[in-house]
Write the structure tokens for this entry.
Amino acid sequence: MPKSRRRPRPARGKTKSVFLNIPYDRRFTRLFLAYIAAVSSFGLIPHATLEIPLSKRRLDRILSLIARSQYSLHDLSRVQLDTSNPRTPRFNMPFELGLTVALQRCKTPRHSWVVLESSPHRLQKSLSDLNGTDPFVHSGTVRGVFRELCSVFVSTPLRPTVPQMFAVYRLLRSQLPKLLRSSGSSDPFNARVFSDLCVLAALAASNIV
């Protein structure tokens, strides 16, 4: 039998929130913007661990973010060693996926999660416990993210096209330098810039989609 690719199903009594479990590094900036643009274009609200206040216990806040989200997207494409010493792989993304699976099985059965990758067949080697569930493979491109999320959110009321998502993405990309300057940040992976991007994407999507 073919392996299943999990697709979200509408959940009752939950917000239209999407937990983004994605890498935070400069090389991922384009895809970071693509996820925000696409999720917002589907009329959904992106959330990420970037929003966690310093005063909160991080693990508790991660669990809370996942539990109150209707969907979660887990990008496991960062499996290589980083460049700084000591060179290590990224464990945050698979760890948060594991938390999500446990919550979905034990506490929030209506939560829907999917796995995304940049390379086909690699997940079978990097996380063999997920054998039987195929990831959505975006090939490391913005267009690939849009293409795969069209398949992920096939049952949502809003059905944006890839060109519409690109329009939202281009606006985010053009406004990013201004948002970075206004926040005094050197990269978009912080709470202020993430929040500003989400607001901008929601407004843009409401006018485009």
